[in-house]
Amino acid sequence: MKISAVRPLVLGTPWRNLTYVVVETDEGLSGVGEVRMVNHTESLLGYLKEATQHHILGSDPFKIEDLTQRMFRRDFARASEIMMSAIATIEIACWDIMGQALNVPIYQLLGGEVRERIPAYANGWYTVERSPEEFHAAAKRVVARGYRALKVDPFGAGFYELSRAEKQQAISLIEAVRAAVGDEVDIFVEMHGRFSASTATALIRELAPFNPGWFEEPVPPENLAVLKKVSDAVSPLGIPIATGERLHTPYEFRELFELQAADIIQADITHSGGLLATKKIAAWADAYYMLIAPHNVCGPVGTAAALHLAASTPNFKIQEHFNDFADAWVKDVVTGMPEVDPVDGCFPLPQGPGLGIKLNEDFIVEHPRKDVFFDLFKHDWQYRQAEQNITQKNG
């Protein structure tokens, strides 16, 4: 079996473009991968075009390690988010092909299931006014959907520091969310790499009484020694630090592990080279007694891939899920996607061969790529309505 074609398709939403990559073979089987690139979709498509010509066409989709290593090393370039994301889309599609050819779900090829249910937490739910009343009501809707955990960034457009008024507003929002969901639901506090070490440390201490499940990316990701500084300062509070969505290679994770600067690893399968690469990172994290909670802002294809990793990874903690609240209609881009259980906020194990889903390409045509720019440091970004300029055809 050989790869005969690679077809990227871009689905547009009001704030993100979702890129689906269909990998076809000369034996009639095809697989699909997905990635959400923040503001760099055109760069991704350009890389995929060149990689298809030089590395992908004619490759055996069963030889995943060989293909991804050639894409990673033969260009004689340092790995970037764009490179690792492109590799991931192809890699996931190859696993999908392999699972279909062997008539087994991907998680069976990754070592088999180690759990019967996959816990998930909600994100993208707080597209409301930044007031305690609105956050309280929105959080109640999350719990009503059956989720037992949710994530929230209460910090507005904050960068490095907050004014006293901004800090008090952020605290009031978390207080309102805790009051809404009760003591049995996890609240994960997203900090989006906004703050200096001193600001992050002060905020974590002030929010600790609300018993968050973790504090995520308290400082920018480039300088892990600063993250270590924050982690050491707040360690007596006993609340985990989570990070990793903007680390893309094993070499970046190596420094994080050696510094012991975090407790929970949030590698994104679609930005870290795919399922096997992330499985390796998870195993490495396990050697440091760390859990993995994969970052996931994808539509249902990326989510399906994440569920196969979760099913087969012993130190998995919980899966991020956007698609019940942010542009829930994107779920119609596939058939076969399992739903979050309305009782305990868990996904069932994926079913069917490969990813267990089928892509609806007509749906993508109906929702073409948009020229959007999403800015997490813009006032009222939480509405997730990026400015739109030109609607473009699929790449």
Automatic annotation (TrEMBL):
One example GO MF annotation: lyase activity
Keyword Calcium part of the UniProt annotation: no
Keywords: Lyase
Residue stretches making up the Mandelate racemase/muconate lactonizing enzyme C-terminal domain: 132-237
Domain of life: Bacteria
InterPro entries: DgoD-like, Enolase-like_C_sf, Enolase-like_N, Enolase_C-like, Mandelate_racemase_C, Mandelate_racemase_N_dom
Protein name as it appears in the record: Dehydratase
Lineage: Bacteria, Bacillati, Chloroflexota, Ktedonobacteria, Ktedonobacterales
